[in-house]
């Protein structure tokens, strides 16, 4: 057995999967575009009409294209509403309000796990220009072109200091920072501000759409269908196949995908900013209103949050969201001292649900501490405990949560009963009238 | 080590003459009660009194910064023990070194003093401390926090492991001068994200490896490769750290350290620390059947020993060698030490698989004395702080002398008198040790072996290395042909060559799929579906623990009785795909023991040689296929076999290395025995040979597998391979061997480097094996030599010796 055979039998060297694309014949390779580049590099550049950019650290491809529109929206005019920015990026620098300073960014990478061995083989950027959207895509024809690409990117970013991404705060930008550090020589252009639209999109549409993938948002929020699109999980393999000498055609799909992501992002950004500026203008979509309220609440704008929660309740909401909105509004009302509204909302959602149990608890606290009606509080808690009986448990709540509420209610009830007893002894047999068994049990 | 040898009277009298402390008297009383029914010198094969020893001091070195010296002074440390001073000087001179110290000799100062001195001198200095377990890192944190407090918190000390909350991680990376972590976290959490650790790596001046002796075999071979990766990354950021290592007593600490860090290492071996007096006792359970060589069950005897000690209010730790035995002993001891009504258990269990919160609670209970006894696996062997206990009882030999001393050291760490009792099982190794106490009490003969260039391990780490930083063509990584390997990894689709470098081109994150401690990183979780018994109304399923992949098939197979905290659980269902075992709490009077079949195929012979017999010896590459095919039900206390069951579980395949002896047709034909006796003799010989091999290799019994298979016509040929043979432990059902191969294989994919040494020392191996069998007092074979004698096995011992006779000419 040769060393080679030994190696071949190592478990750790078994190929994880077969390359999907067959190797090209040697003819392509022999054309000698550049011996250091994969066989498909030249044809790829031709098909894309891409040019090769050269700098201090070498070369990489660049493809530029101008679009008269982003997806589903007109280019913005003038400055962004300060109302919206306050919700989106409180305390950010002045440049943020000027869309001409924005640089949209989206990367395609060799993996989704991050870490030092993941390469951003394609970096797409876009900016508003001449009444449309200019998209530029950088591409590493070989992994060795990374440094050149990173340098060009740093230069472009320096021109527009506001970074705009979708999930870029936790993925794309940290990954690029890692890449810059790995060069040990090229400095990343630190953005003056970073707007990321993943979380706002989640708040606004997750309940309705279930997922907040960009393509879904384009379809349902912006009303634009991408058509055939690559499944993003396949992207790394497409690139690997190309690196190993496979045909370049499948990469065209990746370029297109990245382009659409950038256009979708630009459209979505405009749409979200408009919503945050004034949700009323967009008709009465209860779920969107609810989402805006949540963002307002998170940013501490309680007055706006109350207003929009109330508006969302006037519109149509699915049962669960309706309950959540009532609970949130009740909390805000209580905090603002509007107890009658809070009581009304709590009364309306009592039941075995996350919000319903909290409502029981809040009402009990209210009757015990505010109105000093321990009997009424006890009655309510008994009802809650009766609802919590296992037979009735169907709300899909975690066992730990149910346990917590049950023990809270039991403790509360003991205290209330003790107090009611003391009151009962002096004030007669009120307790007996309310609940005859409880006496017998003591 | 002054020791007064043997016999209860002599040993204890000498012990008492030195210092008649109350606890020594108590121990004597307990031992007296134990041996009352037996001949003391037969049962207590060694009673050594290890007297207290004075400390040897040196002055605090002049270069130690005054504020640090003051901080130590305030803790009561004005001078250094001699070994601490020697370590400090080596550290100051920038050398790599390893300090060999017994338990409780102030080893932490050996690294804390130089490291903190450097940090105080330059606040940019960074140090990485590696401990083999998370718990040990937690334990060291307390000591460092105390020093930090005395030094106005001018440096940061943090643990960084899987339990570190993610929001704290960034701060730790920026502000930690000393980071306490473990090899696994370095491997999966730090190195693959080194750009987040720029500040640490740019200033990395010290790497501390504590409990160095634990890094042997598989774990050590992995660690050596993790350290190769660490060195690459440090170099990338322009630093070259100095290594400070601490080890328990082994024969080759310097060699081990040098292999692990791939740098020359100085060794500090003299010990200047004081020691409290200790009584060390070897207890060999009495014979119940001299003919069959059967002794009383060592688990039952361990229980008796522990009961006597606990009854005399001595806080006691009991060590068992497996999870199963931990739980069996726990069951026995909890029954014997019932708490008062409404009180918590006085005796608790402690092993891997318990959840962290449960462990912390037990550690606290031991420190404050609420828990009187604990039954543990090796999980408590290393320095986890459980305070000073009075007695340590070991159920069976720990497998190595170093571990045995560490287990013994859990009793009486700081002062006073303590005792350690090793109860021997009938395993050959145990019997060898208790009958040759000088082997144990003399200078350590134990070598720790690692095989950093095991290809399977190395290639896995090479993938991680490429992920961390592209591999340059001219780089070195261990003693292998790196360009050739990279080429091959490129063909397999893991690497891609670009601009002279090899880049990682996989979506997968390689470190995630490489476990430093076992073959796979898969764990099975144990889910209790009993319901209703404990949680009141909502008896929802609850995760009660986990077992690693390799032991899952033998411990949580369907119908197994799984023991957890003394509670028995019946395994209702094993979901192999989802790695889940569903169990229900039960109360039965038996436990289960899995039956595993093994088959070996030779892939490539590395060396082969004809030897006397006629026979041949060889080593090379093999494929081992094994399967758990059934289980036995064994009754508590009596150990009767009360039933069995069949199992249909997936088989495991492993490519590894093996040493084997081929017995030729002629040899077997000449033996004057019936077929079944010959077969028994072959199995008995292999049994004894495996025991002596673990002794020679200083490895764990689990590191070596055994199998007997027909010699293949030529390597790779499918001989006798299609079907697993019938139960190997029932020779009656076995096919006749014409020319059997007796295999001792490395029980790890790729091998851990045992096969070639065995090939080299085969004559010593055979001679020792013969001595073992000849020296055993049994008549027909027993668990201490050729394995347990069953029915129709009267000639096992004789036949094994007859074969050896021919091999040893």
Largest interface between protein chains, with number of residues from each side: A-B, 45 and 47 residues
Could you report the average pLDDT of chain B, rounded to the nearest whole number? 83
* N-end to C-end Cα span of chain A: 85 Å
Structural class of chain B: alpha/beta
Please summarize the sheet with the most strands of chain B. 7 strands, mixed
Encode the helix/strand succession of chain A as letters: HHHEEHEEEHEHEHHHHHHHHHHHHH
Cα Rg of chain B = 27 Å
Give the count of helical stretches of chain B: 26
Rg for CA atoms of chain A: 30 Å
Q: Give the helix level of chain A as a range of percent.
A: 40-55%
Looking at CATH, which topology of the largest domain in chain B would you report?
Rossmann fold
Strand content of chain A: 5-15%
Distance between the termini of chain B: 39 Å
Strand % of chain B is: 15-25%
Specify the CATH class of the largest domain in chain B. Alpha Beta
Largest sheet of chain A: 7 strands, mixed
CATH superfamily of the largest domain in chain B: P-loop containing nucleotide triphosphate hydrolases
Taking all residues together, what is the mean pLDDT of chain A? 83
Could you please describe the fold and organization of this structure?
The complex is a heterodimer of chains A (442) and B (809). Helices cover 54% and strands 10% of the residues of chain A. By secondary structure, chain A is an alpha/beta fold. Chain A has three domains: 33-277, 2-Layer Sandwich (Nucleotidyltransferase, domain 5); 283-337, no CATH class; 350-442. A seven-stranded mixed β-sheet of chain A has the order 1-2-5-4-3-6-7, sandwiched between helices. In chain A, α4 (82-88) crosses α10, α12 (302-314) packs antiparallel against α13 and α14 packs across α15. The longest helix of chain A has 29 residues, at 249-277. The radius of gyration of chain A is 30 Å and the shape is elongated. Mean pLDDT of chain A is 83; it is low at 17-34, 426-434 and 436-442. With 809 residues, chain B is of the alpha/beta class. Chain B folds into five domains: 8-52 and 275-439, P-loop containing nucleotide triphosphate hydrolases (Rossmann fold, 3-Layer(aba) Sandwich), CATH 3.40.50; 57-240 and 253-263, Rossmann fold; 455-513; 523-588, no CATH class; 597-629 and 650-807, no CATH class. Helices cover 35% and strands 24% of the residues of chain B. The longest helix of chain B is centred in the C-terminal third of the chain and has 23 residues, at 675-697. The two termini of chain B are 39 Å apart. In chain B, 51% of the residues are buried. The chains are: A alpha/beta (442), B alpha/beta (809).
